[in-house]
Design goal:
single chain, mainly alpha, 13 helices, 81% helix
Amino acid sequence: MAIHIGHQRAGWRGLVLAGTCFIVPAMLIVLACAWAYVRFGSLPQVQSIMYGVKPVIIAVVLQALWGLAHGAVKNVFLGTIGLVATAAALVGGNVLAILLAAGLVAIIQVWLQERTVHASLTALPTKSLLAWATPLAVVVPVGLWGLFLIFLKFGAVIFGSGYVLLAFLQADLVSRLHWLTQAQLLDAIAVGQVTPGPVFTTATFIGYLLGGIPGALVATVGIFLPGFLFVAASRPLIPRIRGSKIAGAFLDGVNVGAVALMIAVSLQLGRAAIIDVLTAGIAALSAVILIFLRINSAWLIFAGALIGFARVSWFAG
């Protein structure tokens, strides 16, 4: 949105200026946090703080899910797509394939409604997409070029809520490539949440973990670069997209597919963050407060950090 406003007000120069001013301060803050994490993250005090912060982050994601689901699940058919997509994600389906399949199935439904085509026509695309929805087995070593390309892919295919990024990080960096552990991913999400700026600056943190300052820079450029290009290319197309039933149906399907991916990754991350009765209580209470009282999440993250620190101090005493 910031890039779009800059382009609308001052053309290409505004696009670059607005995007850069929006991204760079947050990137520098996250970069400093990444340095501190690498330098001090193994200290018991830091581990105790993260013990209380991680379940709050799960609650923050659940709050985002609560709001997104209300807007994405517009009818029973889209809800069914969401359930199937969630199941596919939980069994290891390819993230891009799930999103594309959800969008195409939604298009097929609209197409069948308008033209009353026989229902058997839906079998071919659905079967081929399910066959594609298997995770890739190629393991790529960590390198600056590979790091840039994978975050470029993330930036090119993720839209809407930045929290959809979590599903891609889990699927590619943890499950497929094994570049990160589950705990490191949770810590990266926590840092991206507590610092100002877009959630996509999580890429800066992960890039630093995997490749130092050069890794942080290439990951940040990779994930944000498509946004600059897409804004410039899509502005003339927006009126046509808004008026197209087919495009609208595709976006409806992709939106509900994105919610499904977030549900699946929340369950996976929750198993790593909620490890005992206390963390379960922190997550549940935080979710209730965020959803119904709408308190700023930064306060709950601070409270979670205090609880974690106090817990360790109590046992140490």
